[in-house]
């Protein structure tokens, strides 16, 4: 169980996240929606402790995450993997090595640094990485440089890398924002597969409302740093959507409609 209690983050005089309290059972897939600047990314970054909370508490299975320091904090970031909009791959390295980077947090700090420099991984770890790539239909690209892949393929590499951390919780910050609809669908299906097959809790920030409805068990909406809706996708009515975004749902759909599928190009 992930529990957020009155979680708050201020940047100077601006309140980015304002006393957010949530309880997320293990294995739930939660879509976090809201306008730009609503506090969605800051919320996820606090859960992973990439951004420090100003006040409040984060607990996971009874552990006070906000109190963790040093090795204990590094261990938490291993158990709480994060996927970013811009993939954060090492573009000059091959796909397999990028996935193997997910194993480095399982080593002591100095050993991890040396293994990273020397690209030193065990046969067992390489087998794990290949299995992950096979799972996401990327085994044939294992020895390609990451920069040669499409955006959707790179995002699936990032998901495979996260799985090699053997996490309990997966955070995804706008993972499909830069992808065309076809690639976005493939990535969202990969995230849902991880949620269903591995039993991982998934928290995903999403720009498109219809995507949140289609893939998530639960939707949390934020506005001005606060939670303004928390419920099942079916409960998110047109009136609720207008209250969240400040415009009717029809206008929102026109404003946020993804670009048409490209006529050419590989599926990620």
UniProtKB/TrEMBL annotation:
<keyword id="KW-0472">Membrane</keyword>
<dbReference type="InterPro" id="IPR017871">
    <property type="entry name" value="ABC_transporter-like_CS"/>
</dbReference>
<protein>
    <submittedName>
        <fullName>Phosphonate ABC transporter ATP-binding protein</fullName>
    </submittedName>
</protein>
<dbReference type="GO" id="GO:0015416">
    <property type="term" value="F:ABC-type phosphonate transporter activity"/>
</dbReference>
<dbReference type="InterPro" id="IPR003439">
    <property type="entry name" value="ABC_transporter-like_ATP-bd"/>
</dbReference>
<dbReference type="GO" id="GO:0016887">
    <property type="term" value="F:ATP hydrolysis activity"/>
</dbReference>
<keyword id="KW-1003">Cell membrane</keyword>
<feature type="domain" description="ABC transporter">
    <location>
        <begin position="2"/>
        <end position="249"/>
    </location>
</feature>
<dbReference type="InterPro" id="IPR012693">
    <property type="entry name" value="ABC_transpr_PhnC"/>
</dbReference>
<dbReference type="Pfam" id="PF00005">
    <property type="entry name" value="ABC_tran"/>
</dbReference>
<keyword id="KW-0067">ATP-binding</keyword>
<dbReference type="GO" id="GO:0016020">
    <property type="term" value="C:membrane"/>
</dbReference>
<keyword id="KW-1278">Translocase</keyword>
<dbReference type="InterPro" id="IPR050086">
    <property type="entry name" value="MetN_ABC_transporter-like"/>
</dbReference>
<dbReference type="GO" id="GO:0005524">
    <property type="term" value="F:ATP binding"/>
</dbReference>
<keyword id="KW-0547">Nucleotide-binding</keyword>
<dbReference type="InterPro" id="IPR027417">
    <property type="entry name" value="P-loop_NTPase"/>
</dbReference>
<dbReference type="InterPro" id="IPR003593">
    <property type="entry name" value="AAA+_ATPase"/>
</dbReference>
<keyword id="KW-0813">Transport</keyword>
């Amino acid at each position: 169980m992930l529990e957020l209690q009155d979680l708050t983050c201020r940047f100077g005089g601006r309140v980015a996240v304002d006393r957010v309290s949530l309880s997320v059972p293990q294995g739930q897939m939660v879509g976090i929606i809201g306008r730009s600047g609503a506090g969605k990314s800051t919320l996820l970054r606090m859960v992973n402790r990439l951004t420090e909370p100003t006040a409040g508490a984060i607990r996971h299975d009874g552990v006070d995450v906000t109190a963790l320091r040093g090795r204990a904090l590094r261990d938490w970031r291993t158990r709480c993997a994060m996927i970013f909009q811009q993939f954060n791959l090492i573009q000059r390295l091959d796909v397999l090595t990028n996935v193997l980077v997910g194993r480095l947090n399982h080593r002591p700090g100095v050993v991890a640094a040396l293994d990273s420099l020397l690209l030193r991984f065990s046969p067992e770890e390489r087998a794990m990485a290949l299995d992950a790539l096979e799972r996401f239909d990327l085994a044939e690209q294992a020895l390609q440089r990451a920069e040669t892949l499409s955006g959707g393929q790179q995002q699936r590499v990032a998901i495979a890398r996260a799985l090699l951390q053997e996490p309990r919780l997966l955070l995804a910050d706008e993972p499909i924002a830069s992808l065309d609809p076809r690639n976005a669908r493939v990535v969202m299906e990969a995230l849902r597969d991880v949620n269903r097959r591995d039993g991982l809790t998934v928290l995903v920030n999403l720009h498109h409302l219809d995507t949140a409805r289609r893939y998530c068990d639960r939707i949390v909406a934020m506005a001005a740093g606060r939670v303004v809706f928390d419920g099942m996708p079916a409960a998110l009515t047109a009136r609720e959507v207008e209250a969240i975004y400040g415009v009717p749902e029809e206008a929102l759909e026109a404003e946020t409609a993804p670009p048409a599928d490209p006529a050419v190009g590989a599926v990620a």
